[in-house]
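Batch 3, record 17
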Amino acid sequence: MLKIALDCMGGDYAPIEIVRGGILAAKELGYKVYLVGDQEEIESILKKSGELNNPNLEVVHAPDKVEMNEPPSNVLRKKQSSLYVAGMLVRKGEADGLVSAGNTGAVLAVGKFIVGAEEEVERPAIGVALPNPKGKTVLIDVGANVDSKPRHLVQFAVMGHTYAESILGIKNPRVGILSIGEEEGKGNELVKETYPLLKQTKLNFLGNAEGRDIYAGTFDVIVCDGFVGNVILKASESLGLAVVQMIKEEIKKSWLAKLGAVLLMPALNNFKKKADFTEYGGIPLLGAKKPVIITHGRANAKAIKNAIKVAGEFLNTNFNDILVKNLKTLIPEEAKV
Amino acid sequence: MLKIALDCMGGDYAPIEIVRGGILAAKELGYKVYLVGDQEEIESILKKSGELNNPNLEVVHAPDKVEMNEPPSNVLRKKQSSLYVAGMLVRKGEADGLVSAGNTGAVLAVGKFIVGAEEEVERPAIGVALPNPKGKTVLIDVGANVDSKPRHLVQFAVMGHTYAESILGIKNPRVGILSIGEEEGKGNELVKETYPLLKQTKLNFLGNAEGRDIYAGTFDVIVCDGFVGNVILKASESLGLAVVQMIKEEIKKSWLAKLGAVLLMPALNNFKKKADFTEYGGIPLLGAKKPVIITHGRANAKAIKNAIKVAGEFLNTNFNDILVKNLKTLIPEEAKV
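Prediction for the assembled complex:
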């Protein structure tokens, strides 16, 4: 039986929505869920839900927590925090994976330093499957690392390839490196140094991708440094919010437009479901020793259940074994500089 | 009388829409416009428009052109191309500014190497005023430079400040440096080295901005390396296109939604006008000796006229004089490392 450590104190709707998500996972997926956090609060929620005696739900007390606005590195000193304790359950092998809706930077720190990196992996990286009209494109890294070296980007490419193939079911994924300008030789120093290494790998490397390729479906995996990926991801989210707000203000000015908006709502909601990558169930830290799934701070019970399901998919597909094999076989010695 | 060199052979709708834009500018703004490109083609358009004898429109023959998909650096060898010839008109002082809808990289090359950098400016940079629900935020640099050094980012900040204040009319603009994480000390090496320098300037420096700040109206100027700015800008454009396409596909599935879309159209068009930064009339290469305005490849006559108008605004406000003064007075010697 798969066992997942769930940080119940992180996230905007913690602990209630998180605990409820854990309950859903235990009941619908049949996983064992360690509910880590304030024992009293968690048990009170379990009691209200009539799940206090569910053998698949085990409360692990952690009196402290990491706040959303706290410097992420604090978590490594807060050894009684729900996130740290959940990370330790994974480290000790009591749990097979970690899910948290808490402070993203803190989850990353726990993933990198408590759960640790898988064999062959130099730096775990965050891969996010972004939607486009034709499917999904994995952007990696979106914030686990800054000032990456060429050899790190090559590893990210293999991680992204493995994620696209094993989890998203994309065969022979088309891999690109994010740059400005299409032709080889265009870009910054990092891109120029990484390009020839990627060419030497056994990946289906198509060359430079540009910013416009991210949402166009022209690549399945796009590799970049985590600084770049992070600002793109956050800019995209903020663009989405700004567009919605600006359109709403225009709609307010006309009752015909208001009626139009009402009629459009079901279509917009369908779009939103496809576009909102946080609905898929969270973003994985690829290359960690065990699945570490970061969900949006706004995650509700369903999103938490989905994140636990994603952790399960990583485990059921033996993702890490495939990743280690791919890192060994797809990158020739010459490209490991 | 202001004199603008217009590259008539660059852009998706060249030469006809470009020439028509030049005609609009001559008639509505009263500027002299040098129409640079194939003399026969341009004169034929002028003739059809009844403007062959307009003294404010002067055709300058250039037999060659730079294609949209050509390596940008080619322009420096194509000395008979419309873009190069237009750049030379500015360099020689015959024209006061340059407008082109052509190959962006090639326009940049002409701006940097033919028009050249203004006194005090080490590297010209592209500043783009991006829309948000509260107004506009200048993102600089969005692609003129890669692998920028801290001192370049400090100059970009002053250029963005001057653009926001002199052209956009924003008083005491709030300046940030793009990073991941809000607190000082977060980010990559470039950000960590630049932060203390920006603190020493006389700019209204608020510290780190995050990707989510770009479209949120929380800063008036956000500084970044051109690689980062370029991929963000292009990703934003491609996200916009992807969202429109995905929503259209959802709308197709229901006639009620189709009706809703029709009713919403006027509001959406209003939004589009505000959001489409290409409608403002092009993007300036800040820090060039004379205004160099890059418009979208899809620019029509109106967009070209607007771009010429923007070039005029830079000249009429003595933008470059203010910029040079700001570079001298806002950056203390200690921050010029």
